[in-house]
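Hey, I was hoping to borrow your eyes for a little while. There's a protein on my desk that I can't quite get my head around. The fold is given in discrete form, as structure tokens running alongside the sequence. I'd be grateful if you could look everything over and explain what you see. Here's the protein in full, and shout if anything looks odd to you:
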Amino acid sequence: MLIKQTTLKEEFKQFCSFFYLYLKKKVVFWIHWFEKIKDMLVALLIAQRGKYQQSFITTSFFLLVTTIYMAGPIIAENNPLIGQNLDESPFLLVV
């Protein structure tokens, strides 16, 4: 029984083809899931004719502010231009 020997280039092309189809399938699944959840939320908000609108807006704003508050120090810490004083720089030479 003969087994066909494949080259590294052929295997890489097969892998890329498979990985593309796999990612496409996963992305489509998550898009459909997100749209289904969004449609249910919109239907709930429309059916109640604005009954939950104020609480939804307040909650969304609270989550946005909380996320910014929590992510701000991480962004400032990783930005080389913000978050460090020149006096605290480890590369500052004192003569």
